[in-house]
């Protein structure tokens, strides 16, 4: 009976109480590890068989069971629970209110389950939570609100060995200003890129103690683009130093070493970071194969950090396209493909400068393209280019390198001057020499010493000249003569116009000038010149009592007149006519027999008896009217103006030639008016000096006595 009872009891206990060895409870810890193998759901009833005092429980261990679900409210009585271990179970889903009442929870271990989803609210209010372990699950989604600033005590969160495929910055939802390390492990996941669906903006603060481990993921590249997702203000240059504040460990990822990672490598190698914590920042290449295991941040040569582009990136078919960040350009190599035109589309990259190789094709001309001004090197050697389109040349950058060797170019346009000679290779072209090409000499010579200056051209289809040696005479250019002739003609036309205007305005001066310059005498025909029997060329009248005029007449006027050719003979009455009985008669006779009468007008001429007579006589007062052209007045100075306002002078001078010694053309005009006689007639005048013996002490009048002593020798001798 007792045996049966024992067996029944044992069966009963075995049926309803899995805990065959009594309640696994020592006052604070419930250890149900491996004890619930046939239980798939944890509910409140699991704990009721023990005489538990819920408030004293701080630890529940439920590991190594087959728990699939946790019923709502299963833990609701354990308000002092601090540690909950649910590892090694079969949990797939945890409702977000499962742990709602566990306000004292410090450690939560959910590792080795089959969770896929950490939903919003799961860890709400877990102010004391220090450690979370959800490693070795199948988590692919972590709600962005799983952490919050409430989690001030969290030191470790382990998400290793899950299936998270993108990095969302939820670890940084933890409070950032706590000066203790917080580690969030997301190692061994499937993260291949950074995302920001949660719209986080960078707000990290010193001391930057949130460490996030992303090693052993699937990151193939990392660059400023990734963290610019979280801070749009960030420049490329600032990006790496900001990246350091994320405390992200992204080592041990299968990096593809190409152009995308160049910039950070450049930043690190050009800063103190080059020597700082090198071992923790060994980012190693996975691809390409020959760089596998190399540390791209520190060691891989820049020249290997390039990206091959595909047709999908815009690379023209059959061409080879590569971005070369270290040279800051994109290479497009379409050499030897039989192209007849420039490629219409080229890849658009972060490196807009283009090196375009189109050598060994069949291109016939430079083409304008949307990328023309991005080209820094253009290789067009061995094509079929005949002419260089100037408008396309103007599109190129000034510093472009242009290889045009071995084409059909015959003439280089002047707009090539935009480029330095050393940047243009034009050899192997059938360049023709032409007259205007001398500008090329300066262009070619303006290069550094040692540059090949041998560019040559062909003249007359046979003679080859180095362009630097070409001169217009070698090329037999007449061009320049025409320019000179043109210029001279221009000057002549202008001169003629000016002369024409002058002639129109001053016809008399024109005649005088013509006579002066060309000795052409468009002579006004004076009747006096037809008179025969005139023995004197000139009869000069001046007031010898005015000393200035006497001096001027003697020292300047007569002297100069003497030098003039042809030489005139001058009759000077007060020198040659003796004062005496028939003075006036003598004067009149000589006046009549003179071809010209030159009257030097001075203020007081009318007061001089003889002179006044002469004037009147010459003006024809005593006989028939004077002949035109015979009387020439010389206005000695402006003092005479007053005299000339009065009659009879006013009338006299109005119709006569009146010259002034101040006039620039005085002598020319005078000569023009003087009678024409054959030059070299060998008449020589002897002008006896007019002596002024008495110095003038009062006024300008010379004493009569002195006048009387003037020489009375004959005026002239004729040699022939
Ligand atoms: C537990 O499950 C095993 C098989 O999985 C079974 O043999 C055993 O009887 C079950 N025990 C109880 C108490 O249900
Ligand atoms: C209960 O057991 C745990 C672990 O076995 C131990 O750490 C704890 O001190 C024990 N508590 C008491 C009151 O014995
Ligand atoms: C809980 O129980 C299991 C086996 O029943 C044992 O291996 C483990 O060490 C116990 N844990 C603690 C903390 O006592
Ligand atoms: C349960 O424990 C309380 C005190 O902690 C005790 O009074 C009571 O008798 C116990 N019941 C059983 C079935 O052990
Ligand atoms: C729990 O999750 C559900 C569904 O995802 C959600 O609607 C609810 O707001 C969450 N609870 C809390 C407290 O966040
Ligand atoms: C879970 O993580 C915690 C803290 O990181 C650690 O102590 C514990 O051993 C982990 N559990 C397992 C099963 O790895
Ligand atoms: C996570 O759980 C929530 C609510 O249970 C669900 O709406 C969401 O689709 C799940 N996400 C994933 C990735 O399974
Ligand atoms: C990892 O992610 C990629 C896509 O990013 C996916 O194709 C692959 O199946 C994922 N692997 C695992 C183990 O989840
Ligand atoms: C993030 O911003 C986008 C666009 O502003 C919005 O569509 C999306 O709903 C936002 N996501 C969250 C998690 O707020
Ligand atoms: C970016 O700049 C804007 C305006 O200058 C500023 O309001 C914003 O806070 C900046 N964002 C960050 C992440 O610094
Ligand atoms: C790019 O292409 C060149 C030439 O085909 C090849 O040698 C090199 O390995 C390629 N690089 C990458 C990163 O694919
Ligand atoms: C590279 O080229 C771009 C495009 O012209 C220019 O803006 C940039 O300053 C260059 N970078 C360097 C480092 O020279």
TrEMBL record:
<feature type="transmembrane region" description="Helical">
    <location>
        <begin position="482"/>
        <end position="503"/>
    </location>
</feature>
<dbReference type="GO" id="GO:0007165">
    <property type="term" value="P:signal transduction"/>
</dbReference>
<keyword id="KW-0433">Leucine-rich repeat</keyword>
<feature type="domain" description="TIR">
    <location>
        <begin position="534"/>
        <end position="674"/>
    </location>
</feature>
<keyword id="KW-0472">Membrane</keyword>
<keyword id="KW-1133">Transmembrane helix</keyword>
<dbReference type="GO" id="GO:0016020">
    <property type="term" value="C:membrane"/>
</dbReference>
<dbReference type="Pfam" id="PF13855">
    <property type="entry name" value="LRR_8"/>
</dbReference>
<dbReference type="InterPro" id="IPR035897">
    <property type="entry name" value="Toll_tir_struct_dom_sf"/>
</dbReference>
<dbReference type="InterPro" id="IPR000157">
    <property type="entry name" value="TIR_dom"/>
</dbReference>
<protein>
    <recommendedName>
        <fullName>TIR domain-containing protein</fullName>
    </recommendedName>
</protein>
<dbReference type="InterPro" id="IPR050328">
    <property type="entry name" value="Dev_Immune_Receptor"/>
</dbReference>
<keyword id="KW-0675">Receptor</keyword>
<keyword id="KW-0812">Transmembrane</keyword>
<dbReference type="InterPro" id="IPR003591">
    <property type="entry name" value="Leu-rich_rpt_typical-subtyp"/>
</dbReference>
<dbReference type="InterPro" id="IPR001611">
    <property type="entry name" value="Leu-rich_rpt"/>
</dbReference>
<dbReference type="InterPro" id="IPR032675">
    <property type="entry name" value="LRR_dom_sf"/>
</dbReference>
<feature type="signal peptide">
    <location>
        <begin position="1"/>
        <end position="22"/>
    </location>
</feature>
<dbReference type="InterPro" id="IPR000483">
    <property type="entry name" value="Cys-rich_flank_reg_C"/>
</dbReference>
<keyword id="KW-0677">Repeat</keyword>
<dbReference type="Pfam" id="PF01582">
    <property type="entry name" value="TIR"/>
</dbReference>
<comment type="similarity">
    <text>Belongs to the Toll-like receptor family.</text>
</comment>
<keyword id="KW-0732">Signal</keyword>
């Amino acid at each position: 009976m007792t045996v049966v009872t024992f067996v029944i009891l044992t069966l009963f206990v075995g049926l309803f109480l899995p805990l065959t060895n009594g309640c696994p409870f020592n006052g604070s810890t419930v250890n149900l590890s491996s004890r619930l193998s046939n239980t798939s759901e944890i509910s409140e009833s699991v704990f009721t068989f023990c005489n538990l005092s819920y408030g004293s429980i701080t630890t529940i261990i439920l590991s190594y069971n087959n728990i699939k679900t946790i019923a709502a409210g299963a833990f609701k009585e354990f308000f002092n629970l601090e540690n909950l271990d649910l590892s090694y179970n079969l949990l797939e889903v945890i409702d977000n209110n499962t742990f709602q009442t566990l306000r004292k929870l410090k450690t939560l271990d959910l590792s080795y389950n089959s969770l896929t989803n950490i939903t919003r609210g799961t860890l709400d209010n877990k102010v004391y939570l220090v450690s979370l372990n959800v490693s070795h699950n199948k988590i692919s989604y972590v709600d962005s609100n799983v952490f919050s600033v409430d989690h001030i005590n969290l030191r470790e969160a382990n998400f290793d060995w899950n299936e998270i495929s993108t990095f969302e910055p939820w670890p940084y939802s933890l409070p950032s200003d706590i000066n203790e390390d917080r580690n969030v492990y997301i190692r061994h996941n499937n993260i291949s890129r950074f995302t920001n669906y949660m719209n986080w903006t960078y707000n990290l603060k010193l001391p930057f103690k949130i460490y996030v481990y992303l090693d052993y993921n699937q990151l193939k590249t990392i660059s400023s683009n990734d963290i610019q997702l979280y801070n749009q203000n960030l420049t490329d240059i600032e990006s790496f130093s900001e990246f350091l504040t994320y405390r992200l460990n992204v080592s041990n990822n299968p990096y593809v070493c190409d152009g995308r990672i160049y910039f950070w490598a450049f930043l690190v190698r050009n800063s103190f970071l080059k020597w700082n914590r090198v071992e923790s920042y060994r980012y190693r290449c996975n691809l390409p194969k020959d760089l596998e295991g190399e540390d791209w941040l520190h060691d891989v040569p820049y020249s290997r950090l390039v990206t091959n582009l595909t047709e999908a990136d815009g690379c023209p078919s059959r061409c080879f396209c590569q971005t070369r960040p270290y040279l800051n350009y994109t290479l497009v190599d379409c050499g030897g493909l039989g192209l007849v035109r420039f490629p219409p589309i080229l890849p658009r990259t972060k490196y807009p400068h283009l090196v375009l190789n189109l050598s060994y094709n069949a291109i016939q001309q430079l083409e304008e393209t949307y990328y023309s001004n991005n080209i820094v090197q253009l290789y067009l050697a061995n094509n079929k280019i005949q002419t260089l389109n100037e408008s396309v040349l103007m599109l190129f950058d000034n510093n472009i390198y242009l290889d045009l060797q071995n084409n059909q170019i015959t003439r280089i346009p002047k707009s090539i001057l935009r480029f330095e000679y050393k940047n243009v290779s034009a050899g192997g072209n059938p360049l023709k020499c032409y007259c205007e090409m001398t500008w090329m000499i300066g262009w070619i010579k303006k290069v550094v010493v040692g540059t090949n200056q041998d560019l040559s051209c062909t003249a007359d289809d046979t003679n080859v000249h180095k362009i630097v040696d070409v001169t217009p005479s070698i090329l037999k250019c007449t061009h320049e003569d025409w320019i000179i002739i043109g210029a001279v003609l221009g000057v002549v036309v202008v001169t003629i116009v000016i002369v024409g205007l002058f002639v129109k305005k001053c016809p008399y001066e024109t005649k005088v000038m013509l006579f002066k310059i060309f000795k052409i005498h468009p002579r006004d025909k004076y009747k006096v010149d037809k008179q025969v029997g005139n023995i004197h060329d000139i009869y000069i009248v001046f007031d010898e009592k005015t000393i200035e005029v006497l001096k001027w007449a003697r020292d300047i006027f007569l002297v100069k007149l003497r030098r003039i050719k042809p030489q005139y003979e001058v009759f000077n009455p007060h020198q040659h006519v003796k004062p005496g009985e028939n003075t006036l008669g003598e004067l009149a006779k000589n006046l009549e027999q003179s071809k010209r009468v030159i009257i030097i007008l001075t203020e007081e001429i009318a007061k001089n008896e003889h002179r006044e007579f002469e004037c009147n006589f010459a003006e024809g007062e005593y006989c028939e009217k004077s002949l035109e052209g015979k009387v020439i007045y010389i206005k000695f100075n402006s003092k005479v103006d007053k005299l000339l306002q009065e009659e009879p002078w006013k009338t006299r001078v109005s119709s006569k030639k009146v010259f002034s010694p101040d006039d620039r053309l005085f002598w020319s005009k005078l000569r023009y008016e003087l009678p024409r006689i054959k030059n070299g007639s060998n008449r020589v005048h002897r002008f006896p000096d007019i002596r002024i013996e008495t110095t003038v002490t009062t006024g300008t009048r010379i004493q009569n006595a002195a006048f009387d002593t003037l020489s009375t020798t004959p005026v002239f001798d004729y040699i022939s």
